[in-house]
Structure formats: C-alpha cells, structure tokens
Amino acid sequence: MTHPAASAEFRFYEELNDFLPPERRRASFAYSVAGTRSVKDAIEAIGVPHTEVDLILVDGRSVGFDRVLSGGERVAVYPVFERLDIAPLQHLRPRPLRLPRFVLDTHLGKLARHLRLAGFDCLYRNDYRDSELISAALAERRIILTRDKGLLKQRMVTHGYFVRSTESEEQLREVVRALQLETGLRPFTRCRECNAELHDVPKARVLERLPEKVRAAYERFQLCPGCGRIYWEGTHYARLRRLLDPIAQPDAGCD
Asked: Is residue 87 part of a domain?
C-alpha cells in the first residue's frame, strides 16, 4: 500500500474496533498524520481513547505514546492482552489499581447501583462535571467508567474504561469481564443507594421499621449506616443473585 508523505497506515485490533466506523474495523487504512504531535494524538483523533490502548507497534517495534509519526509508517494498535505475555514490550496502560474502586459518569446510575450490590466502591452523582470525575479519580485512585469517549481522551486520565453496552445488567457483566473483577465480588455488602458498607443488625433493633409481611417472613437484616436503609433477602435479592452468580466465574459468558 502506498501513502501520501504525511500519511501512515493504521490497523486496530480486537475490541479497539468498537470505536471505529464500520469501514475501518479489522482492516488497514491510511490516516493523515500531518500536524499531529505524537502517535497518541493520531490514535485519539481516529477515535480510540488512550486508556484503551496497551501496545503500539510502529513498523514492528514497540513505541510509547510520545512517538512522532512523519508519514509512511505502519502502526498496529492493541488493547490489553489477557492471555499473551508481552513483558518484553512496552506496556502503555498503567498498572491496574490493586483495589478496584470506581467513579461513574452521569449516564451510568443503574450500573453504579449494580456494582455496589456486587460489593464495589462506586462514586456516582447525576450532575458530575468532567473535571470532578477526573479529580475524584486522581485523588482517590479510582477507575473512571463512562459512555463518553471524549472524557477518556483527556490527558489527565490514567485509569478509565469505555462501557460499550447500553443495558445496565449487561454493563455489569461487561465491566466485570473486561476488568477481571470476578475474584473481587462481595455481593450484598454495600448499600446500592449511598455506597456505604452494610452491617448485620439484630431484627429487634429494626423491627418497628419493617413491613408486617417482612417481620413474619425474614430473620436476617442488614443496616446501612450512611442512609439508614434496611436490607433483607427478599424476591429482589433472589433476582440479583441470579444476575451475580454466573459472572462470579472467570470464564462466564465467554466462548
């Protein structure tokens, strides 16, 4: 393939194709690099956030985000490798946070509640500005979960994930699989509304606050110290258990 002097040949692999228009998916294409300061700038101009990229090969050699393209290069861009050892090459994603905690953008309220039910520490407000999301992520070492690709392209962002699905239960499955959170699931240990950790509480202590049918049917209760909500193993619990149990297996949902 020949290119104008200021163009390079790009090829994106695996789930990075989710960010590309159909005609560019799983195929090589020429892209003008005139005026770009680095390969990172070109990749994000094409539409792929840098937080999704773990390896870049330019003419077969591993490079960093700061590599300048002059034209004529062949650029291969890869996501995180889960089963292939690329230790000799230059990883571009920062090391995973040892304790996965999250801050979610305004479009992911239902996902925030699902992740909290799964036991994960999640900050969420329906009026977060981008600057607030980034500040919380940096100050508290949190992973940004978002449906806004532009947010993940901001230079300050170090740990982030673009949520592909639009349905909340599938979003939960997607995030657990993509970030390999299966071993960190601690279902029903955190309040789905305010994020505080739940505590077991004697029935007698909350008896007066329980609906009559609940008093007769249940003996075990949890209390949220943050907002005062009471939780018990009702029909909602059974439905959520059916959602969480399959994704607790590392290979759940994978071929």
From this structure: no
Return the residue matching tokens 């170090």: 158
What six digits make up the tokens of 28? 């090589």
Q: Report the domain count for the chain.
A: 2
CA 212, 216, 218, 224 dihedral sign is positive
Residue 62 burial (10 A CB sphere; 0-12, 13-18, 19+): middle
**Domain end (from 157, 191, 225):** 191
C-alpha 78/C-alpha 164 separation (Å) is 17
Q: Is the domain of 155 the same as that of 106? A: yes
Name which of 172, 100, 86, 188 is nearest 140 in CA terms.
100
Nearest to 225 by CA among 185, 203, 195, 204: 195
Same domain, 111 and 72: no
pTM over 0.90: no
Tens digit of each residue's pLDDT (9 = 90 or more) over 190-233: 999 999 999 999 999 999 999 999 999 999 999 999 999 999 98
**What CATH code is carried by the domain that includes residue 48?**
3.10.20.30
Q: Are 230 and 210 in contact (CB under 8 A)?
A: yes
Q: Tell whether 66 and 24 lie within a shared domain.
A: yes
